[in-house]
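agent> fetching stored inputs for the fe (ii) ion docking request
agent> found them:
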Amino acid sequence: MPSSTPPLETSYRVVHISDLHIWRIPANPLLWRGKRLLGLSNLVLRRGRRFRREALPELLAEIERDSADHLVVSGDLTTTSLDLEFEDFGKAFDGWLGDPSRATLVPGNHDRYTRPAVRERVFERHFSPHCGEGDFPFRKELAPGLALIGFDPCRPNPFSARGEAPGEALASLTRLLGEERSRGTQALLFVCHYPAEAPAKHRRHLKGHDLVNGEELLALFQGFPIPTWWLHGHIHHPWSHRSRLAPNLTYLNPGSPILRREGKISLGRWVLDWDGRELRAEWRSLPHSASELESEG
Ligand SMILES: [Fe+2]
Ligand SMILES: [Fe+2]
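agent> prediction call returned; pasting tokens
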């Protein structure tokens, strides 16, 4: 049976961001092929104007002020999985990278954008210590009683942004979840780029962008007794959403902190405090974006 965790002397703080979509336009024309050609055209026409890379220092300063013990980034670090984009992310977040106890990263569909990017394990090459060396799902104990599982259902697909969790990853996740109680876990952070559910107002955004086997993944949490926070992104709106099907599950989406909406960016992020007994989640943003948060359930 799990032993109950004594309260921590100081609470443990996790900051969660997602979907920065750092972009670069490659000078090498050989990189302008296949799906990337589509992504780059889209970028030039639209994304480049919306994702404000120059706001990264401001975002980093806010995260610094949050005094986090651990940073979680739930995917779509990049736009077309270019080495240059991953390098830009690495440079910007240099202060967080290197020590796996300080940061966890999982890929989003844009970090698995092309088949070569997956075959050549570009994400893993850049961030191996922070993504369980790419052996998904991976588990970390962040603090007494607080565990994290990183999951990757992202697959390159020339015509779709849908994800699909492989059968063997579901089997490994089933095994990990089955062990959590005996490990004494009292709160679990499940980090996965895609959600399996969304608030009513945003359900249409998942159409054609969802997990092919999201129901199967969600089913693993339906009888799971430990309070779980599913940290994700993918849909660029911030929300907190209680699962309709898994009673102990809450989805947290920080939205995209540097996406310009109506001329403004949010710098939105979730700040999670674990005191050894209870986990509290607070969405922080610039004041003008506070009303963007959707809370359901
Ligand atoms: Fe995204
Ligand atoms: Fe995405």
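agent> quick read of the result: The pocket of fe (ii) ion (ligand 2) is lined by residues 76, 108-110, 193, 234 (CB under 6 Å).
agent> awaiting further instructions
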